[in-house]
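A favour, since you know our structure tokens better than I do. Just paste the record in under my message, thanks.
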Amino acid sequence: MKGIVFTEFLDLVEKKFGIEMVDSIIENSKLASGGVYTSIGTYSFSEMLQLLQHLSSKSGISIDNLLLIYGEHFFSVVEKSYPGLLATYKDPIEMLSSIENHIHVEVRKIYPDAELPTFIVEEKKINSLIMVYKSSRSMHHFGLGLMNKTFEHFKSSAEIVLEKIKEDGTEVRFIINKN
């Protein structure tokens, strides 16, 4: 997992919960990195899981809700760092349906060894989209947070329903209906 995911996560934890919480979740985890991350480094997903688990137990917020909050935060990173990418789209459905064939292609140019989830578009209409998320990691709520902010970015809203295809969350169907 790319280091930017860790550095931004710890930045969010500091902003929302304070530096003491950052120290606590790092100290309570058994991290090969020692909790020291660079945005271009690559780190084990197990480290993110440990940080999430400790934050969840200390904050009382479920891991899924933490991932949702983090996904929403991460969208602001994309807005700031890659405004040109967002400017190529005029509609949230158009943008979300191009994750696999455009956005992930651009991400791989910056982070060639990034392990990205797969998004398969099953059905696309003007105001709706059905796509399947597949990943070795259960981070679909991170994706949901990004989707929520995508609609907000385009001054729109949507009802997004998750259907777990695999109980462990590594395969999830997103049913998106634009309001």
Summary: The chain has two domains: 3-61, 66-178. The CA atoms of residues 31 and 46 lie 8 Å apart.
